[in-house]
Amino acid sequence: MNLELSHRVLSLILLNLPDPVLVFDGQQRLLLMNPAAETLFGQSESGTELRTILKAEELIAYMLERQPLPEWTAADGRVYVPRLDETRDQQGNADASVLILRDVTQFKKVSRNQAEFMRIVSHDIRSPLTYIQGFANMLAMVGPVNEKQEHFVEKVLSGIAQITSLVDNIQDAGRFDLETGFYEMNRDQCDLDEMAHRIVQNHLVPAEKGELAITVEVANNVPVINADKNMLERALTNLVDNAIKYTPNGQQVHVAVYSENNSVIIAVTDTGYGISIENQKLLFQRHVRLARQEHKRIKGSGLGLFIVKSAAQRHGGDAWVRSEEGKGSTFYLSIPLKDENLIIHN
Length: 346
Fold this sequence. Notes:
- The chain is α+β, with helices and mostly antiparallel strands.
- Helices cover 44% and strands 22% of the residues.
- The chain has helices at 3-16, 35-41, 50-54, 57-64, 105-142, 147-176, 192-202, 204-209, 229-246, 277-280, 304-314, and strands at residues 21-25, 30-33, 72-73, 79-88, 94-103, 187-190, 213-218, 225-228, 252-260, 263-270, 318-323, 329-336.
- α5 (105-142) packs antiparallel against α6.
- The chain is elongated.
- The mean pLDDT is 83.
């Protein structure tokens, strides 16, 4: 393809590209902009300075200072994801830069609509679940039930518990998601010692049904932190739930909370089947469940560990796993002891 034809083809691509594209020279003066960029920023002559065109301080800082900018919202409410590329001369100096603004407004609307739909469904399904659970529990009060009827009631209550857990996880995954979630953190004094013991206490009956020994240990150096108690409670509950569900009968689950490297660490250890290195990389993604024969009868949505990681990241921390096949696993959640996570004493 000759130079003239290449120029015509590139011009045609730029002309029809729906996303705004602006090209600047090494002195940050405009070389060209496509029609989508003209619509967004207004028409500008070649040679106009970058600041004059962009106007938005966050975009200017992204271009000139390389400040991170995951998204930019224009005055008309449209949302763009910026991308910056450069060309360099033989001496390695930048002689042109290209700013591409990908319009993700429609995707954001779809995401918000899905989140709102799930919020409404999750809210509205709770009332009938509460009624069903209440009346199922009252059956034994009406009169004596035989062994078969008692078995049926247990099945009903077990199904309700599964649906309730699924609704909770769907709702939490949507709210806590760093990219699309709408959850506003509510920080308060959070005693992880009390929380860990309470959650383990609430899981003693399920553990006993699975013939599991479940223990908890909180180090003396764990401070009270400034955190979202609801979010961390949901994360720890999911870790303990998973450990009980995926650990074979007769094994052990241990919950530990301690301080290390200026962070609080929550660790939940089991003596289960263990997880391969390849599968460990996938575990904290949304809707990921490992396909293995031992887990076929275990119900789950694949959202629990996604919620754990989201909760950790919203506190500036992280979540990870260490495991060896056949030797069990330890799931970790870390919360840095700094910034907003610290309680400010007057």
